[in-house]
Amino acid sequence: QVQLVESGGGLVQPGGSRRLSCAASGFTVDYYAIGWLRQAPGKEREGVSCISTNGSTYYADSVKGRFTLSRDNAKNTVYLQMRDLNPQAPAVYYCAAGEACTRIRVDGLGQGTLVTVSS
Predict the structure, then answer these.
(1) Beta strands in 1-119, from DSSP E residues, in sequence order
(2) Cα radius of gyration rounded to whole Å, the chain
(3) How far apart are CA 23 and CA 27, in angstroms?
(4) Do residues 96 and 2 make contact, with C-beta atoms less than 8 angstroms apart?
(5) Could you tell me which residues are beta bridge partners of residue 82?
(6) Intervals of the chain under pLDDT 50
(7) Cα(63)–Cα(48) distance, rounded to whole angstroms?
């Protein structure tokens, strides 16, 4: 069964850091592009970051320089390291896979992991 499970969310103070994990099962993460998306209540879902099959990484302008995406093939897991987090409404972060970063499939997203940045 193909599955992606997000974890690592929680309450973070402004300026703090958090690492999110996206653990894959049923397929190998380096054979697919893996993207992170987030959605806050009442807002559109937005793409945050993506790592392609060749390891290239892409970031939304809003997170560029603060977020780092990495892939651990041995653990079949993709990580999103978030630094210098800005105060914002809680957002659920999701990971999803696709043939390329331009073709991330967002149907059938998992539970996601909630990140709240607040003092």
Answers:
(1) 3-7, 10-12, 18-25, 33-39, 46-51, 57-59, 67-72, 77-82, 88-98, 113-117
(2) 13
(3) 10
(4) no
(5) 18, 67
(6) none
(7) 7
